[in-house]
Each structure stands twice: as C-alpha cells, then as structure tokens.
Design brief:
Helix content: 10-25%
Radius of gyration: 27 Å
Number of strands: 38
Oligomer: single chain
Shape: globular
Bound molecules: 1-deoxynojirimycin, calcium ion
Strand content: 35-45%
C-alpha cells in the first residue's frame, strides 16, 4: 500500500509539473510516509554488520514475515519466509504486521577457559522485529537478528501471552533461499546412521535433506556455512531442499507428536549463516560461539585439555573384546599396562572401555541394559584407580548407554559420584543405536523411541553435562547430538564425535577416503571440537582387510588440523614404542591454543592450519591433503618477529602414497624466523606436521 501511494505521487512529478508543485508533492509524500508507520504491508527494516558489508533486510511482505541477506550489495539469501506450524492452533504464517523495531549492538572481547583461541571478539549490530497478527488471535513473536562481519544469526522469541502459553511446534518453517548457484558439501539427515556418513559434494540444486553444518561455495566464490547455535530444549534443525535453491527447516522428529513443546516465554536456537570470501574464513569464524550464552559454570579450571591413550583401538581391530571372556580388553592387568605407558610418555588420560557389566550379548541399541557402577570380575576398578593415582595418570570414565537413556538416567548420579570419588574427571559417553532408536522416558513414565537429535535428547545431553559439572567432570559424547557451541556456556562439554571418526578405518566399509578429514575441517569441525582419535601408526591394522587411507605423516598433522581440547593417541602402545621418532610429535603437540591461523585451504581439497600453544611460545602446524599431492609454500609471518625457532618437520618421504606406500616419513630440523617460508610437499593422501620450538 505504502509503496503504491509513493509511486502515484512520483508519477505526477514525472508528468512534468513545475518545480514548486514537485516540492509540494515531495513534502506530501514525506508526510504520508511518516503517517503510515508502522505500515501494515511490506514493512522492511535494514541491519548492517559493523563493517557495513553484510546487510540483513527483514520485515513482512503482504503480511508474511521474511528476511534476506546480501554481502557487498550482492544477494546471498533471497527473500526467505519465517514461521511455524503449530499442532493445536492455526499456523503462524500470514497476517502479521511489524509492531516494533528495536536496535542494539555489542562489541566485547571474551576469554575462553580453553580453546582454539584464547580471546574471541564479539562485534555485532542487532535488530529485533516484533510481529503481531492483525486479525483474530493477535498472536505475537519476535525475531532477533544479529549481523556480524563474518555472518548472521537470528532466532525467534516467544513472549508470555494469553492464547499461546504452551507452544506446540509441529514444524518450524524457516526458509533459506540461496541466491547464487554453488557447490555444497553435506551429509544426509533423517537416515539410520545419524551423522556418520561420508560428506558428499553436489551442486546446491541437488542437495536432499541434510544435517547442518552444510557448507556451500557459491559461483562467485563466497563460502557459506548453514548451522545453528545454542540448541537448548529444542529439536535439531535439518535442512530440506524444497525446489531449486530453496531450503526449509525440518525439525528432528519427536515420538510425542509435536516436534517441540515449550512453555512461553522461550527462544528458539539461533539460525546461523557464516559468510566468508574464502574457505579459511569459515574455520576462523567464531559466530557460533558468540551466539551462545557466557560460561554458566563459574570457575572451570578443573576442566583440563589433555591427551590420552586407552583400551580402545584393540577392540575395534578385533584384538580384544568389550564383552567378558578370554579376550576381554578391560582387565586389571591390561589397564595397568596402559597406565604405565601413559606415565612413561606423559599422557594425562587413560580411557578404559568395556569395564562394566552389560557388554555381553546384544548391547547395541540398549538391549542389555548397562550397569554403570558394576565392573566385570577381572577388572578391579578401585585397584586400577589407585594405580593410576600412584602413576599420576587420570582414568577416563566410559558410559556406553547404547542410547538407552531410560536405563542411564536413573543410574547417572551414582555413576558420576563413583567416578568422582576415584579421581576420574572426564567421561566418554556413547549412544550407539540407530537413529530414532534412543529410548527416553517421557514425563508420563512411558519409554519411547526418540531421535538422537530431537528435543528429548537435547534435554538429556544437557542434563548429563550439568550433573557432571556438579561433580567437576568433563563430558565427551559419542553418537551425540550435534555441537552448537554450548561449550561456551558449559565448558565441561569438551568434545564429541558426531561424524565418521577413525573407528571407521578399523571396520568401516568403506573406510574413510583421503578427502574425509579435509572435508571434516570445513564441515563438521565448524560446529566445534571433534574427538576423531588420530595417530594410527599401523596403517593396515587388520592384516590386509581394512586400511587407513592416509600416510603416516598425515596422522601426525591431524593433531593440529582437527581441533579438540582432548586428543587421543589411538594406536596400541607397542606400535608407538616401535616408532619413537614420529611418536615424538604426538608427545609434543599441545591441546590448548592461544590462537589459530588458517594459512591456506579449499573445501575438500587441502588445508594448512597453524596454532600457537597456550602454555609456551611454540607454534605448531598441520597441513593435510586429499588423494592429490600438493606442493604449497607458506610464509611464517605468524611467528614472533626477531625470534629464532627450531622447526621440527615431519613430512611425507619420497614416493609416499596413502594407498600402497604410506610409511615413508622424513623427520628433519631447521632454524626459521618470521621472515622464512616453508615448502610443504604433501604426498597423495599425505600431510605435514611441524613444531616450531621457540629458542631463547
Ligand atoms: C562408538 C564410539 O564411537 C566408539 O568410540 C566406542 O568405542 C564404541 N561406540 C563403544 O562404546
Ligand atoms: Ca561412533
């Protein structure tokens, strides 16, 4: 309406009236503009990022809430609708007007207790639009938009209001219409194997229903990552392509009917789009963390980044078993062997899987019902814990729940207290079951089969993390819900799996291809730390059947390329002690960083990351490539000027190749400064790891 009036007035001007009349006409137009705010149709407000490059426009078109995004005046997201379908009321869709527009901004630098960078800048402009239905129920909700220099986020906020007190969301209808054609990297959502798929690369217009983060490189070279931040008491958002380049949110299902049920007031998670001119910028963007709430736990100095070893790979390669019997892995004797090894080589943690009753028979999916306080008879938990204390090593607890949450939650308190009493300050949890097979007890006492990333499981994971925090215990969840940056609020949620990990190289069919880890850096790892468990030295672990499709040198580079505050040296002690020279890099590499630089990289092809140790002046570098060899050169200007560093270089040796010649590795040292440059010669499926040791 507003636009129509303006157009009519200006057409009078074009018809050639005199200047005086034209002025009057202009004034009248201005007057009308002022009178008609807030308008009832086509109200559009604009928000720009601090540097002005990224622009969000949002409001309503014909009564339908919408938004669009551009960067440097080029469309990134075309007009995309916002709204909800409700289970017990008409949908929240059309007939809305913008009742109020509030603006705010933020500019702070906050400190991570541990992380890939110590200081994080959080600089944004904010705009909140309050939408209200004009007719009928007059329901209202707001959308809070934030524009950062590295992308945008927005969330829905449901206020306290009569008539929409218990909000039963049948489906969220948030659209993402990608303006340009492009290439996408994604894994399918809604399939049985949760997040454990190989990343696919397709044109955007061929993407099906996928998990986030989804990464896109547009035709003009822009890099986008679609994800969410602060997934709390809500169902995870999948993205479903409807047509062309139009995606719509698809919430993970609930066995209860509506996908989300919440009492107002509440906010949804943030819907996020990271936007970068290059692939590297996605990795160094902290937008997801910035959209999470600050640390809610207070002093978390008890959360210790660390490296660990454990009774783990030997089960995956069938050398021993989780279950009881003659080949049981978690025996007192074997545990002491690993503790000795950890103490000898300076590892803080020793993970012990298969120690507790419940692994015999069909444990997958929670059939056997694990006992989280009862050890197998050949595993003396008290004695092993005492031995670990003696050797100054920490046991890492293990709770494989097989996604039988109904069996786990009643035992949680006792299980955490047992570990806390024994000095165990981190636990690996596990939820092995097919998607949709998590057993969760509802408020009505009925146990239902839920999805690993639905509202029920988002509640469960946070419940465990909060209860563990009370005992000063850190959590590393496998087969988890995806990471949405909650480590900022709950820094004891240190890592998780949530993708195909190293374990697939023991028994996967196929195993992880050479491009897999490079794909992870630009997809899964954008959501947060991953417990990938690098460091396999015996690359044909199962006598000719399965093979780890990397060179040995690449296994070292993964410790820098794949960020996690906990990193496992996953192979067997004997394989390390037979290869002490390359093992030295694993012993030296830290897990807590002052800062991170991405020196080069292309999604799915290669990447080089440099990180500065938080507890020394040393820098570390990891470069990895896919199946193609690469010759790259990196400048070392990140090093402190005028300082000399001894570079300990671990690189692929002559003719190294992931397929049939993975072992050649050259280990050499040379002195460098910030003015030096370093050639990186990566073999097919190869990598290079460097420690820059600061000299006095
Ligand atoms: C799957 C986990 O990813 C793996 O690390 C663990 O060993 C097994 N479940 C058993 O809990
Ligand atoms: Ca797994």
């Amino acid at each position: 309406m507003l636009r129509m009036r303006t157009r009519l007035l200006f057409s009078g001007f074009e018809a050639g009236q005199g200047w005086f009349q034209a002025c009057l006409t202009g004034l009248a137009a201005l007057f009308l503009l002022m009178l008609s705010a807030p308008a009832t149709a086509d109200t559009i407000s604009e928000l720009r990022s601090p540097n002005g490059q990224i622009k969000i426009e949002a409001g309503e078109l014909g009564g339908r809430p919408f938004y669009r995004v551009s960067r440097a005046d080029k469309p990134v997201i075309a007009n995309s609708r916002l709204g909800f379908m409700l289970a017990d009321q008409p949908k929240l869709d059309g007939g809305f007007a913008v009742m109020a527009t509030e603006r705010a901004s933020g500019n702070e630098t906050w400190e991570q207790p541990w992380g890939e960078a110590r200081y994080i800048k959080n600089h944004y402009q904010e705009m909140t639009l309050q939408f209200r239905e004009g007719e009928g129920r007059k329901r209202t909700y707001s959308v809070r938009f934030r524009a950062f220099d590295d992308g945008i986020g927005f969330r829905y906020e449901f206020p306290d209001q009569a008539g929409l007190q218990t909000v039963q969301i049948a489906e969220e209808k948030t659209e993402f219409v990608i303006a340009e054609p492009g290439t996408a990297w994604w894994i399918p959502a809604g399939e049985w194997n949760r997040y454990e798929y190989l990343y696919q690369r397709t044109p955007v217009k061929e993407v099906p229903q996928v998990h986030t983060p989804m990464t896109i490189r547009t035709a003009s070279g822009l890099h986008l990552s679609f994800h969410e931040a602060a997934l709390v008491d809500y169902s995870a958002m999948w993205l479903r392509r409807v047509e062309g380049q139009r995606f719509v949110s698809q919430l993970s299902p609930s066995a209860n009917g509506p996908k989300v049920v919440r009492e107002a007031p509440f906010n949804t998670p943030w819907r996020t789009i990271q936007i970068s001119p290059d692939a590297a910028g996605l990795v160094t963007s902290h937008l997801i963390l910035n959209l999470n709430e600050p640390n809610a736990l207070g002093d978390v100095s008890w959360v210790k980044p660390h490296k660990y070893v454990g009774i783990w790979w030997e089960m995956h390669i069938n050398k021993s078993t989780w279950g009881s019997g003659p080949t049981h892995g978690a025996t007192t004797v074997n545990a002491k062997r690993y503790i000795d090894f950890a103490a000898r080589h300076g590892f803080r943690g020793v993970l012990i899987e298969g120690w507790n009753v419940g692994w015999d028979g069909n444990w997958f999916g929670g059939e056997s019902g694990f006992d989280f306080t009862k050890a197998y008879p050949d595993f003396d938990l008290e004695a092993v814990a005492a031995y670990a204390r003696l050797k100054n090593v920490r046991l890492i607890g293990h709770h494989e729940t097989a996604a039988n949450v109904a069996n786990y939650e009643p035992q949680l308190d006792a299980a955490l207290k047992l570990y806390a009493r024994l000095g165990v300050d981190s636990i690996k949890t596990g939820y092995v079951a097919d998607a949709g097979g998590a057993r969760v007890q509802g408020a009505d006492g009925v146990v239902r089969h839920e999805w690993h990333d639905g509202q029920a499981m988002s509640r469960h994971h946070l419940h465990v993390v909060k209860e563990a925090a009370r005992q000063k215990i850190a959590i590393n969840a496998h087969e988890p819900i995806k990471d949405t940056g909650l480590r900022r609020t709950y820094p004891n949620w240190v890592a998780r799996e949530g993708a195909r990990g190293q374990e697939y190289n023991a028994w996967g069919s196929p195993t992880n291809p050479p491009e897999h880890e490079v794909n992870l850096v630009f997809t899964r790892l954008l959501s947060g730390p991953m417990d990938y468990t690098p460091g396999i030295f015996q690359l044909k672990p199962t006598l000719g059947q399965n093979q780890v499709l990397t060179t040995l040198s690449k296994q070292l580079a993964l410790y820098v390329a794949l960020y996690s505050p906990i990193q496992m040296a996953a192979d067997l002690p004997e394989h390390y002690e037979a290869n002490m020279a390359p093992f030295q890099f694993i012993k030296d590499v830290p897990t807590d960083w002052e800062e991170t630089r991405v020196l080069n990289g292309e999604v799915g092809d290669y990447v080089t990351i440099a990180r500065k140790d938080r507890n020394s002046q040393d820098w570390f570098l990891g470069a990895i490539t896919d199946e193609n060899p690469r010759n790259l050169t990196v400048g070392l200007s990140f090093l402190t000027p005028a300082k000399t560093y001894r570079a300990h270089i671990y690189r692929d040796g002559p003719k190294a190749h992931f397929k049939d010649n993975p072992y050649p590795i050259v280990i050499e040292t040379r002195n460098v400064t910030s003015r030096s440059s370093l050639p990186l010669a990566l073999a097919p499926g190869g990598g290079q790891a460097v420690r820059f040791e600061a000299m006095e």
